Amino acid sequence: MFEGPLTSSIIGRAIANDAIEFDFVNPRDFAADKHRSVDAPPYGGGPGMVMMPVPLAEAVDSINREYPPDTLPTTILMSPQGSPMTHQLAENLSQIDALTLVCGHYEGVDERFIEECIDIEVSVGDFVMTGGEIPAMAIIDAVARLVPGVLGDSESAEEESFSNQIGGMLEGPVYTRPAVFRGRRVPEVLLNGNRHEVERYRKRIAAERTIARRPDLMQGWGPDPE
After folding, report:
1. N or C end of the chain: which has fewer CB within 10 A?
2. CA angle, corner 16, sides to 13 and 19, nearest 5?
3. How far apart are CA 199 and CA 175, in angstroms?
């Protein structure tokens, strides 16, 4: 499932340039039976299957043994019960040398594994998915692009939505050639070459869009002379 997203575009180039590195561990490799089972019915009854703690814990242990005790990876479980994924969290995670992402499946993961092995639970939204693989891909992309050397232009990550230093602002509209498309013209201020006016326009239009579409983000805005 990860092969496509991790071999294309910015992430693929970053791997090729050794800016970031990925590896994969299959919990089935640590199963105790001939069927390589990693799930079982829940105690107390109920629908679905639950991922067993032993194969998962041994998989995580196998990763941790590759690191000195004082530099163990931060282990993250993809979970709808976790903390919401935000740009700030992505920035925090990008400062950590190694991350282990655990992709849950089925009805859930044995709580004892979470208590024993997980540092952070993270959710990508208030909806249910088949497993944690796609959320993990989203986190990989959001975090990896903040690692130095991954993006070609160091400023590009700083000027995007949610990374504005005011405290959370959507990015304003962007335009490129042609100057007129089906009767719609690019705003004149973007064509006049005055960088100061362009920057003021972009900040104003970004603020207007944020107020209209995500007013909740305004709570983080601090004083700004403009």
Report:
1. C
2. 85
3. 14
Distance CA 162, CA 154 (A): 16
pTM over 0.90: no
Contact call for residues 104 and 132 (beta carbons, < 8 A): yes
Q: What is the mean pLDDT of residues 132-147?
A: 96
Peptide bond into 178 cis (omega under 30): yes
Top-confidence residue, 215 or 160? 215
pLDDT for res 165: 46
Q: Is 184 left (phi over 0), alpha (psi -120 to 50) or beta?
A: beta
- Kindly give the pairing relationship between strand 50-51 and strand 108-109: parallel
CB 131 within 8 A of CB 103: yes
Cα(207)–Cα(4) distance, rounded to whole angstroms? Answer: 36
